[in-house]
């Protein structure tokens, strides 16, 4: 089947999906053939974009097969991905179609690697998860930082996140789903470790940091981001023979640190109970989000300290509202990068640093996300 579209966006009627569609409408190059896909045509029409509207339903495998067969890149905002994501990943892997999503669910990513990485390598598909705030600032921020350090030396990078922004409803639902399945998550990670090649003659360590005081409180960030950074480091020799990454959430005052820790602990505890999960998921609906005014006041800054070969560098990745506006921008630019840029000739389940690397950094900079050298 001849390719009909350069990019298809699935899930544009959700809050983040609509923001992604809006960014694409302003960012696509002349001649780009792109479309929106979903199961409710009336909701797609309500977006008011003059692009083709395609039928696709995550519960209808045939519709996803047709979608993947007719596109160069498919982007999806339909989560939680553990519940809804695999049929589209499978369809793209079979068709050799590039795929990008917003998942921050480690279990989903590990299961997709075990089940679909091999076929994607054969067909040439790039399956790229975590193309939003999870985990582009960390993955590409570390790549940017490593590029400023000498090659072939041990490298240490620490990331400190500060910000003011509300997590998206989709992120909350994904986080609660992940927290409620610790055993399944551990099993999926073990299955992946059993089959995934490890780098030979190189060492990589990427973990949440411990509690530190560095002029303010640095708390561990047990998110998917450090896992993504570690996979990039294992795949790319440029990270050196001995690479270490630690990630933190930074707050200035002890009461704030205690509140963050208590909130995370309470959320994890509630996620273990059906009634607790239901209560958490009612706090923010998956398709809801803040007003444009609230998003305009939101921001994030990720400061990265890199050391290697006797050199020390400090960089920063920064932007506006992380949970919605910048996440939508990151997903849209990832799809555009795969569709139109000169990216590495690799295939399979990949990270953003491996699949796109510097071309995506350049795109994001042009779109208003900062990659800045603070100290070199």
Task: Give a description of the structure.
This protein is α/β, with parallel strands linked by helices and 376 residues long. 45% of the residues lie in helices and 23% in strands. It is built from 16 helices and 15 strands. It has helices at residues 15-27, 41-46, 61-69, 81-84, 86-95, 106-123, 136-146, 169-179, 182-195, 225-235, 254-271, 274-283, 292-297, 325-340, 352-355, 358-366; strands at residues 5-10, 34-38, 53-55, 71-76, 98-101, 126-128, 155-164, 203-208, 212-213, 217-220, 242-251, 299-308, 311-319, 348-350, 370-375. Strands 7, 8, 9, 10, 11, 12, 13 and 15 form an eight-stranded mixed sheet that branches. Helix 1 packs across helix 14, helix 3 runs parallel beside helix 5 (86-95) and helix 8 runs antiparallel to helix 12 (274-283).
Per-chain topology:
Layout: E1 5-10, H1 15-27, E2 34-38, H2 41-46, E3 53-55, H3 61-69, E4 71-76, H4 81-84, H5 86-95, E5 98-101, H6 106-123, E6 126-128, H7 136-146, E7 155-164, H8 169-179, H9 182-195, E8 203-208, E9 212-213, E10 217-220, H10 225-235, E11 242-251, H11 254-271, H12 274-283, H13 292-297, E12 299-308, E13 311-319, H14 325-340, E14 348-350, H15 352-355, H16 358-366, E15 370-375
Parallel strand pairs: 1-2, 1-4, 2-3, 4-5, 5-6, 6-14, 7-11, 8-11
Antiparallel strand pairs: 7-12, 9-10, 10-11, 12-13, 13-15
Give the strand content.
15-25%
Structural class: alpha/beta
Number of domains: 2
Low-confidence stretches: none
Number of strands: 15
Morphology call: globular
- Output mean pLDDT: 90
Q: What is the CA-atom radius of gyration, in angstroms?
A: 20 Å
Tally of DSSP helical segments: 16
What's the story with the biggest beta sheet? 8 strands, mixed
First CA to last CA: what distance? 51 Å
> Could you estimate the helical fraction of the residues in percent?
40-55%
């Amino acid at each position: 089947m001849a390719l009909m579209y350069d990019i298809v966006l699935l899930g544009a009627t959700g809050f983040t999906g609509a923001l992604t569609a809006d960014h694409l409408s302003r960012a696509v190059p002349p001649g780009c053939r792109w479309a929106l896909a979903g199961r409710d045509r009336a909701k797609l029409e309500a977006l008011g974009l003059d692009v083709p509207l395609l039928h696709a339903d995550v519960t209808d495998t045939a519709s996803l097969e047709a979608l993947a067969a007719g596109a160069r890149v498919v982007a999806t905002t339909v989560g939680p991905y553990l519940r809804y994501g695999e049929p589209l990943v499978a369809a793209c892997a079979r068709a050799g179609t590039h795929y990008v999503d917003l998942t921050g669910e480690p279990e989903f990513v590990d299961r997709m690697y075990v089940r679909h990485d091999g076929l994607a390598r054969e067909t040439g598909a790039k399956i790229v998860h975590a193309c939003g705030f999870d985990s582009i600032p960390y993955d590409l921020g570390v790549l940017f930082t490593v590029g400023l350090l000498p090659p072939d030396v041990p490298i240490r990078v620490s990331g400190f996140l500060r910000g003011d922004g509300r997590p998206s409803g989709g992120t909350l639902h994904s986080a609660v789903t992940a927290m409620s399945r610790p055993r399944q998550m551990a099993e999926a990670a073990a299955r992946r470790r059993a089959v995934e090649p490890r780098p030979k003659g190189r060492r990589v360590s990427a973990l949440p940091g411990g509690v530190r005081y560095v002029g303010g409180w640095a708390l561990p960030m047990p998110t998917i981001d450090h896992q993504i950074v570690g996979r990039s480091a294992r795949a790319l020799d440029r990270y050196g023979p001995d690479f270490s990454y630690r990630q933190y959430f930074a707050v200035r005052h002890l009461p704030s640190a205690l509140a963050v820790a208590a909130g995370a602990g309470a959320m994890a505890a509630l996620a273990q109970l059906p009634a607790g999960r239901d209560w958490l998921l009612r706090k923010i609906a998956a398709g809801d989000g803040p007003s444009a005014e609230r998003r305009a006041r939101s921001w994030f800054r990720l400061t990265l300290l890199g050391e290697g070969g006797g050199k020390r560098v400090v960089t920063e990745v920064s932007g506006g509202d992380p949970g919605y506006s910048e996440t939508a921008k990151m997903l849209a630019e990832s799809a555009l990068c795969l569709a139109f840029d000169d990216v590495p000739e690799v295939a399979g389940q990949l990270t953003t640093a491996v699949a796109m690397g510097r071309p995506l950094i350049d795109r994001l900079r042009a779109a208003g996300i900062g990659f800045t050298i603070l100290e070199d």
